[in-house]
Design a protein that fits this description.
Elements lengths: L7 H6 L5 H25 L18 H16 L14 H4 L7 H19 L10 E4 L2 E4 H27 L18
Antiparallel strand pairs: 1-2
Length: 186
């Protein structure tokens, strides 16, 4: 899923009738890809023991966050257009129990979840955006369901990045433009 950002010129040249739904869908697809890449850049910096560390008793470890996101994706995106997004085989509470999986096992779950998401989202068309899906028995438009999940994943990706940055300390490699640092020549 290579990321592609639409240039502002392309946006301005768009016809805003039916194309607005397509533009929104394309931007949502791109945002999912960006969130995956951002989280993975942070996860790559973790040492094996870091995956299971928490800041306090009420916080989640990176392992728990990865397990939860993978479980959510597996539930939400399997048969996305035809079945409720909260599948009966999901055990959400277990996703928040202390993870015992290795980083390799967690990354396998993570990749599986993102592949399920991609298989559901990539084929969507602008016509699908107004279709109705259900999550926990509540009807929603496809557009709203996509935005709801994107927001949910962005929250957890932010937690993963924050936690990884905290745990790595001085070894952290910035994922964006670093803060200004004093010039070592002065």
């Amino acid at each position: 899923m290579p990321a592609r950002r639409m240039a502002i010129e392309e946006v301005n040249d768009q016809h805003w009738g039916d194309d607005a739904a397509q533009l929104l869908l394309d931007e949502i697809k791109d945002a999912f890809r960006q969130q995956k890449a951002h989280a993975e850049a942070a996860l790559r910096q973790l040492q094996p023991d870091d995956w299971h560390r928490r800041l306090d008793e009420e916080s989640n470890s990176a392992a728990v966050l990865v397990k939860h996101m993978a479980g959510n994706m597996r539930s939400r995106w399997r048969d996305f257009l035809t079945t409720d997004g909260e599948k009966p085989d999901r055990n959400r509470d277990a996703e928040f129990e202390a993870a015992r999986e290795t980083p390799e096992e967690l990354l396998s779950m993570w990749e599986e979840g993102w592949q399920i998401l991609a298989n559901a989202v990539e084929p969507l068309t602008r016509e699908d955006m107004l279709r109705t899906v259900t999550i926990r028995g509540e009807p929603d438009s496809v557009a709203r369901a996509l935005l709801r999940q994107l927001t949910h994943y962005q929250e957890h990706v932010g937690q993963i990045v924050f936690l990884a940055k905290h745990l790595r300390g001085a070894q952290w490699e910035n994922l964006s433009i670093p803060r200004r640092r004093p010039d070592p020549r002065h």
